[in-house]
Structure formats: structure tokens, C-alpha cells
Amino acid sequence: MTRENKPTNEPVMEVRNITKEFPGVKALDDVSVKFYPGEVHAVVGENGAGKSTLMKVMAGAYIADEGDVLLQGEKVQFPHPQVAQEQGVSIIYQELNLLPERTVAQNIFLGREPSRFGLVDSRALNEATLDVLERLDSEDTISPSAMLNTLSVAEQQIVEIAKAISFDSKVLIMDEPTAALSSNEVDILVRLVERLKARGIALIFISHRLKEVFDLADKITVLKDGQLVDTVNPKDVNTGDVIHMMVGRELNQFFPPLAEPGDIGDTVLSISDGANDFLKNINLELRAGEIVGVSGLQGSGRTELAEALFGAEPFKQGTLEINGLNTPVRSPAQAIKLNMGFVTEDRKSQGIFPNQSLRDNMLVTVRALQRLLAQVKRDGVRKNPDLVPTLGEQVDVRASGYDQEVQYLSGGNQQKVVLAKWLAPDTEVLIFDEPTRGIDVEAKASIHEMIRDLAKQGAAIMMVSSELPEIVGMSDRIIVMWDGTITGELPAKSSEAEIMVLATGYENGDKKDAELVMESKS
Amino acid sequence: MANVTVQSEKEVSWLRQAWARIRKIHPVFPVFLIVFLAVGYLNPKFIEPNGILIFLRRAAPLGILAVGQLFVLAAGGFDLSVGSQVTFVVIGGALLINNDPEKLTYTLLVLYGIGILVGLINGLVVTFMKVPSFIATLGMLLALKGAGLYWTGGAPRGYLTDNFRQFGRGFLEPVPVVERFPIAVVVLIVVVAIAAYIFHFTIFGRQILAVGDNPVAAKLSGINVRRVRILTFIVSALCAITAGILEGGFGGVNIIAGDGLELQAISAAVLGGAVLLGGRGAVLAAAAGALTLEALFNFLNLIGQPEGVRDVVQGLIIIGAVAYAAINARRR
After folding, report:
1. CATH class of the structural domain B27-331
2. What is the dihedral of CA A100, A103, A104, A108, to 10 degrees?
3. Mean pLDDT by 10 residues, chain A (522 residues)
4. Is the overall model pTM greater than 0.80, yes or no?
5. How far apart are CA A208 and CA A179, in angstroms?
6. Is the interface score ipTM higher than 0.95?
7. Is A441 part of the contact surface with chain B (CB cutoff 8 Å)?
8. Of A516, B79, B266, B275, which sees the most CB atoms within 10 A?
């Protein structure tokens, strides 16, 4: 059965004027895209551009607030992903949705196993599975009776695709299908995509790797801040054009002035050839008085870098020097002793103690340095008994009193309490991971100013952020990460586009693409 | 509105301050008073000085267990092994002392040594092997009970000497006002005082609450989370041994001496406001929770309710407390 479906002029699926709001953010704003059979359609955009939300609306995981989803010209509304799947729209998430302790066949036909006399008919099950795998030309590499956890990630992905195919999918959506794959495995996936394309399936995939997008896609849709920028044909544009469509917005935020050359002092911390399970080849210096911005897309290793420096997920290789002395940091406790601080990304799960008072939250780090049976001082430590009011004023926290439990504060004030916690010891190196995520504009500005003030007072600061304007506005030097390593370093006031080039996997050596970007910039 | 910074406490009017103080009183204290007076109403002897002391003596082991349990609960754990530890003390103590009053010190030292070991094992299993504390200590409950039985050869043997039993049943006399004062109540007061100091006034106490409230944040704030959790199990075990020594003075040497005490201790601590899953609790309130529970049992007895009702009440308290903690956790 070699049914060739040439791309036709009728879209198999279409979204029209889709709007989806979440509390406080418009994730999608009037987005319309058409998807054609036998076409590979890439969806790209920065973090938070709305890519995943759009995919989830199409696959029935979210219901749009406004607008229509059309399948083969007819309006549809999927109350549940399962309904979408039964009607031929399947989605494969980055985190695979398979049962590791079951066989390939059991996974593919989970919940709809062929039965005989009320029992699972294993032979029919395996035959049906073999049939599906044949359609993917994978029957030789994957056995229906293999346990899923014995397969490689790429093979598991094929099983996910086989599962989707077994529903007779017309539309197959993949969220970053290549993120977890090695380049070898990517090739396998690419061949698979070609085969599915030939079968007339509309393939939609999200990717951060622009190179792949250009290699694979027949159409590219660019989203920015929840809005559709454009849908383009990759033959008509180059990488630089796409990057410029992804970024480039008016700087409407105020940032404190950058450091003057004279403000920047000696190297406080340096790591050479640092590596662990998530990171490789890390070379980085932090200097007193300087803010180093760390940019990179999701999964690039930016948070892992912060955690490695702070000893939460320590480096396993490499030389870490603090103030010129070789000092491996193996735990957060040790990092604190070495005057390091780490304002974590997720305030709720990693930062605050919600049931404890402002006082106890602010003092937890200095108290961690004391003996276990030492008596607590209400507002500080023996050397500095009025620490709490001092810190409270410094970070300008708004609360009914220092006895108030932190859970009752607003997000911005909670973040200030977390900040105070790290200012309590005499911190020399401060690492911020997404310091202003999810807080209001006013609190954002005051946190930005506080960070700059700390640098002015001589702290060495590393600021991880997924928000490009924040990186550009705050950094005296910019580090860009991709795939667990640092792909480049940029000076202050570099453009968002320059950062994006490095963040999408064009390493420094890849001059041609970088030049393309620079050309189209003017 | 946006410009209200942290108010200094002096600015708050004295009326609001007084109200804040009243609101801070834990509900377990008035609840205890009500139950206690209800029992006194039914049995006037109960609220005479001697009646009160006898009541406190009877409640002392549970009070001590509740305090120990509080340490574990506040750090986000459970210790279900304390009942078995009490039993172990009673039957093990009888074997160790072997009818020789001279061996009292030796017996106590060995018992406390075993307690520390049990707490340490509980703590290590929970922190390093990452077994949920509920399961780990449930296993310890069984293992310890079995070990005790094995040690005695299947049935309890020997007696506890009078000087051993003195801790639980004895009195200090002469004492002004009440003439004689139960030693068990002295032990209870000392344990509560030491525990309250450690829990509310030391770094360790603050770290217990921090670990129970948010273990990830605690680790990232430099707290040695494992050490804190292991120590809470050791504190709980030390309390259990102490409670067992008192319990030995009340009844005979039998293998059910401590049965059900672990659940009573948890009920008592949560009555006293300890939040299951951690992060909240107070020593005095936990002890008051134990007294409330004991008074409640008395009350049920007096109005002629069978023992089954006791268990139903306890079960409801625990389910209610877990539900409350779960609802709270979801709201965050």
C-alpha cells in the first residue's frame, strides 16, 4: 500500500483567531495558522512565545477562550486529548508518555488491546504492533515484545510515533522531538519524518534548533509574545530573518545604568573546564562589581550552571577557584560558608518557607552557619543583633510585620524576602536565577535596582534569565548557553538577535550564519 | 496603600496588641479546659489537687511521647515505632534488670542506648535510603516488637524491680501543699521544659521547622537536612524510652504495654496544632494535646462509652488532621 498524498490546497487542520489567556498573561492573541497534509510545519519562538499553548489547544489539552479549530474544514472542539487522538490529531510531548515496565505492544495499544474471550489476545496484539512498526520501517529494530525501558530514547520516541500512527493520525504534533536525541538519533527521526510526510500526514513540530528547522520544515510559523509574527517558506528567508522575527521588541523597561569600566574589580570566582552530568566544558569568570547575564533557551543548562556553581548539583570535573584559591564547592552549605548566595528560580518550591515568619526566613542562612544548639536571637545574630530590620529596609519589603508568615505576602515581596535571606551573610558572589519571574512591573524595577546596587557595592553577580530584555538591560557581560555548554560571550548592550544566534546552537565557529544575521540586522 | 512599609511594633495600638495576643493562644488550651471541667463535673474528685496529680501521672507517658512525636512531625516525618519502643523498654527492662535493684543504672543506660540506636536507624533509613518515614517506622514497629519477643523467648519473663517502677508510680514526699508529688509528673515537666527550650529557642528548633516547611529550600539555604531529620528521630526515640520507663511503673510486664501509643501520640501532637507534613508546631501545645486526649478518654469512660468509641474518636482526629494538612498544602 503506497498511497502517495501530494500536498493539496486544502488544509487538513486550521486554527482561526485563537486567543487563550491565563491569569495575568495572554498566552495566545488572535493566532491563525493553516496546516497542510504532507507538510512539515515548524513552530518557533522565544521562551513564552506561546508555542506550547498553541499545540495544546490543537491537541485538546487546552480549550481556547476565543477562535476556532478546524479539522478538514469543519469546526471541532476537543474536550479532551483522547477525543482529539481518536479524530486523528496526536501530540507527542517532550516528556514521553510511556510505561517503562510494559512492552512496546502493550504501550502502543494501551487501553484498546485486542481481546478474545475477555482476555488480551497477545498474538493479535503483537501482530497489530508489527503492522504499525512496519509502516514506520522500524520492524527490524524494535520488537513488539521488548520492554520499553530497554529501548533508547530515540526508539522510545518511535514507539510514541507508532502509537500516534495506530490511531490513523492525520495530524502529528511533536514538542521538541529532537531535544533529547544525539545527532545520530536525530538522523533516524529525520528519516521517519520523511516517511510520514510521504504518507500525507501533516507534521507540526516545535524546535529551538533553527538549523533543524531549516533542514526539515516546509513552512515556518514564528510566534512572539503570544502573537503570530508570520508563516514563511524557508526557501524565501534565512536564519537571520527568522531570528529577527522571533526577537526585536521595543525596550520599554527602565534599567539602572551599567557598570563603568572602573567599577569592575578582580576575579572573585572562576571555573575552568567544569563538567557534570548536565554541563560540559564550562569556562567562566565572575568579577567583583560586574553583572554577568546568562542567557539560553529552556534546557540549555543555564539553571544547571547556577546549581553547579552553588554546589546543589556540583561540578564533577574542572577547577573552581574562589579568590584565587582552588576550592571545590560540594554543597550549598559549603557555598554559603564561602560567601556565595543563590536566589533560586522557583520561589515557591525552592526559596521561601511559607509557614515561617519573615524573620525566620531572612535569618535561615546566617543561622545555618551557627552551632545547632546555639540560642536563636530574634532579630539577628550575636555580631549583628538588628539584622532583620536592616535587611527589611534594604530590600524594602512590605508586610504587616516581621512576624507575618511569608505565605501571605505578594510574589514580589516574597522575592524580596528571599533576597534578604541572601544578603544576611556577607555575600560576595550572588547568583540569581530568573530574579523577576512572575512578579509585577514595579517590584521588577526595584529588584533590578537592588541587583545593580549590590554590584556597585562590590558583589560579583551572575544573573540567569530567560527574558532577553532583562539580559540586555542588566548585563555588563553576556554568556550564552546551548546544550549544556557556553556557546559564546558577548559584550554589554549586545542585541537580542546576537544572543539568539548563539542560543539556537550556532557556535562561535559557525561564522557564516552569524554573518547572515548581522547582515540582515542593518 | 502601596507605601505601607513594615510597621514598628510600637505603632500598633495596645488594644490590637492584646487582641493579637489572645488570638495567638492555641485553641488546644481552652479545649483542654472544657474537656477537663466536663470530667470534673461528672466526677468531682477528678479536679481535687490529688485527682489532678493522678491524672497528670497517668497522662505523663503520652505527654512525653507527644512531645517527641512533635519533633518528627514538624520536620515532615512520622514515627510509628514509638509504641513498640515502649513495649521493648518494659519487657527488655525486666530482662536486663533481672530482679537485681543494683542493676538499675546499667539497665537505664542500655535502654537509652538502644533508643538512640533505634532513632538513628529510623533516621538513616528515611534520609539515606529515602524510604517514606511512615513505612520505615512501621517496619521498625514490627521489627522491634518481634525482636523483643525473640529476646524473651516468646513470652515476657522477669519482673521490673521496685526502684525501676518507682519512676512511674512513685511520689516525692513530703511536698508542701499537696504532700506528695508524682515522680512521673516531675519527669513530664522536665522533658517538656527541655524540649520547649530546644524547639523554640535554638537553631536546631528553627531548622526542624524549616526542613518540614520546605526541604528543598532548606537544603539550598545551607541546612544539613539529613542531620536535622535523623536527630528528630533520635529525640523521638529518647522520649519513647523515657515514656516506656514510666509506663513500666504502671502495669505488669506484658507485650502489649505500648500498643496503640504511637497513634495516640500523633493524635495528641496534631490536637496541639502540629501540622502533619511539617512546618508548624509547639511543644507546650503538643503536651496539652496529650492531656486533652487523656481527659477525653476519661470523659468517654465516665459517660459509659465502650473502648471502641475511644478508637473512633482518635481515628477521626487523625483523618481530620491529615485532611486539614492536605487542604492547606493544596491551597499554596
Report:
1. mainly alpha
2. -90
3. 53 92 82 93 84 90 91 89 89 84 90 83 89 85 89 85 87 83 76 87 86 88 90 88 75 77 90 92 94 88 92 92 89 92 88 93 93 90 89 88 89 89 91 84 82 92 90 93 90 86 66 50 39
4. no
5. 8
6. no
7. no
8. B79
